[in-house]
Design brief:
Elements (H helix, E strand, L loop, with lengths): L6 E6 L4 H11 L3 E3 L3 H4 L4 E5 L2 E7 L11 E5 L3 H10 L4 E3 L6 E7 L5 E7 L1
């Protein structure tokens, strides 16, 4: 029986950890958590998001811009994120409406699709 989601992984190019931490930790405000010693040599880093984690791994040769795969962050102020993205010249697009939610999506600096979603 599946009881929940433990973590989600997305990828960045090898060697892009500093730029990724600037985006995910500094801009989005997510908190980096310690990776187990056994995994540190593989690159990347982990983030705490509520009671779950996001694993940012390294992977080359991936066309992230073409993928529908994404992570959706539940937020409490969608307008704040639209303004922050606009201020930082990050283009976003409105998502297809779904009942009970407002949402939009954008691509992170590495091409990963990101969704911000707020319950109405």
């Amino acid at each position: 029986m599946i009881t929940g989601i433990h973590h989600v992984q997305l990828t960045i190019p090898t060697g892009a950890e500093r730029e990724a931490k600037a985006f995910y930790c500094d801009f989005l405000g997510l908190h980096e958590i310690e990776k187990p010693d056994s995994l540190k040599r593989r690159g990347g880093f982990w983030l705490q998001v509520g009671d779950r984690s996001v694993h940012v791994g390294t992977e080359d040769g991936v066309e992230r811009q073409k993928s529908k795969a994404h992570i959706a962050y539940a937020v409490t102020d969608l307008g704040h994120w639209k303004a922050a993205l606009t201020e930082n010249e990050i283009v976003y697009s409105e998502g297809i409406p779904i009942p009970g939610f407002d949402r939009f999506e954008f691509r992170d600096p590495f091409g990963n699709r990101v969704e911000m979603i707020q319950a109405l």
